[in-house]
Specification:
475 residues; Leucine-rich repeat, LRR (right-handed beta-alpha superhelix); 15-stranded parallel β-sheet; 5 helices; 31 strands; elongated
Length: 475
């Protein structure tokens, strides 16, 4: 066993502690003990494994502190201690050999500051220390890491201001320092970390404005600055982040109108701007945010009517517009929100019937209350019904108009037919009168001078010549 270089016992259900004899395997370069049920502490004899390059111990139940003897592991490249019950301080000289690339100690009970060995460890590529009780001034604890790609320091107790050094990490793709006590303003130099995909500085004490230089982070798809005290408007340069999928600026002091320039973020899925001081109306351009799935604009100072273009967001799943001063009725286009599963429009000045949409029909009363006059057309029993009389009156007016127009058309038709009939009747009477007059005139002429007529007949028939005989009788 003295020549054993790789020992893999990961992914089993091994119980008990790590034996002291592990230190006798001096040729080990890789020791994988992760994803077991190991307990107890890390034996000091681990420091004898001077050839060890990878030590993976995550997802166990190891307790105690890291032995000082681990500083002897100068060839260490991977040290993964995530999800244990380790306490005390981080190892002081764990990067003494200048080879450490991956160091993860998430979800333990480490306290104190980052040791100098880590601050000057330029070989670091991946660091994850979230969910501990680490503290110290963030501007002094970390250095410049030219190879760093991933840094997660969230859910600790770091304080101080963000330094310019983070913009000098050209390969950094993920920076998460959320849920600490970081203060001061956001350094514009962050815009130089052009490989960033994720930037999460939420739940700190940051103030000032959002630097326009963040618009240079063309690969950014998650930007979370929520729960700080950032002020002023959302810079138009944020609209240049065409790959942005999640934007969370909630719980700040951002003011001005709704940032309609975000319509250029064609991949934006989650937009959270709640608990700010945004004013004005929701622009119709919001209908161009075709990828939106979750929208929260609650607890602002938005006014005006809801744009019907909101109903064009076919992929929208959740919509919270509560605690604003929105007015008017909810557009009927909201019926087209076929993916909507949750909606909250409470504490506004909205009125009129609810859209015939499943999310509105099944919405709890808390999501619809304290408005000016929202009502249900029978589709939501938790809300008062819309006035029936008003609806019938409207229908009656429409019916009366239709009947009136129809009667007028019929009457006009009768008048036209009557006029045509009278004209034709008059023409017929004149023809009959003319024919009668001619007949009367003929017979009057006949009876007036019969002798003359008789003479004319004798002359015309040449004294009744047989040449003019038409036919002969039968007998």
């Amino acid at each position: 066993m003295s020549n054993l270089s790789i020992l893999r016992l990961d992914g089993n259900k091994i119980v008990g502690s790590i034996p002291h004899e592990i230190g006798q395997l001096k040729s080990l370069t890789k020791l994988y003990l992760y994803d077991n049920n190991l307990t107890g502490s890390i034996p000091a004899s681990i420091g004898n494994l001077k050839s060890l390059a990878e030590f993976r111990l995550f997802t166990n139940s190891i307790t105690g502190s890291i032995p000082l003897e681990m500083d002897n592991l100068t060839n260490l490249e991977y040290l993964l201690l995530t999800e244990n019950f380790l306490s005390g301080y981080l190892p002081g000289n764990i990067c003494l050999g200048g080879r450490l690339k991956w160091f993860t100690a998430d979800y333990n009970h480490f306290r104190g500051s980052i040791r100098k060995s880590l601050k000057n460890c330029s070989s670091l590529v991946h660091v994850s220390l979230l969910g501990n009780q680490l503290n110290g001034n963030i501007s002094e604890e970390f250095g410049i890491y030219p190879k760093l790609e991933y840094m997660d320091l969230s859910n600790n107790k770091f304080f101080g201001k963000l330094g310019r050094n983070w913009g000098q990490c050209p390969n950094l793709t993920m920076l998460n320092i959320s849920s600490n006590k970081i203060s001061g303003s956001l350094p514009p130099e962050l815009g130089k970390a052009i490989q960033l995909h994720v930037l999460d500085l939420s739940s700190n004490l940051l103030e000032g404005t959002i630097p326009k230089e963040l618009g240079q982070l063309k690969l950014l798809y998650i930007l979370k600055l929520n729960n700080n005290t950032l002020s002023s408007k959302v810079p138009t340069e944020i609209g240049m982040l065409s790959d942005l999928e999640e934007l969370d600026l909630a719980e700040n002091k951002l003011s001005g109108p709704f940032p309609k320039h975000l319509e250029q973020c064609s991949n934006l899925r989650d937009l959270n701007l709640k608990k700010n001081i945004l004013s004005g109306s929701i622009p119709f351009q919001i209908g161009n945010f075709h990828s939106l799935r979750n929208v929260d604009l609650s607890q602002n100072m938005l006014t005006g009517e809801l744009p019907l273009e909101l109903g064009h967001l076919n992929m929208l799943e959740t919509l919270n517009l509560s605690h604003n001063n929105l007015s008017g009725s909810i557009p009927s286009s909201f019926q087209e929100l076929i993916s909507l599963i949750s909606v909250d429009v409470s504490y506004n000045q909205l009125e009129g019937p609810l859209p015939k949409n499943k999310a509105f029909i099944e919405a709890p009363i808390e999501a619809l209350e304290h408005d000016k006059g929202l009502c249900s057309s029978g589709n939501n029993t938790r809300l008062k019904p819309c006035p029936i009389q008003k609806r019938n009156s409207s229908k009656n007016v429409i019916f009366a108009v239709i009947v009136s127009i129809s009667c007028s058309l019929v009457l006009l038709l009768f008048i036209i037919v009557g006029v045509v009939f009278i004209h034709r009747k008059r023409d017929t009477n004149m023809d009959e009168s003319r024919q009668t007059q001619e007949t009367v005139t003929f017979y009057e002429a006949w009876g007036y001078n019969g002798k003359k007529v008789h003479e004319e007949i004798i002359e015309a028939t040449e004294n009744f010549s047989s040449n003019y005989c038409i036919g002969v009788g039968g007998y």
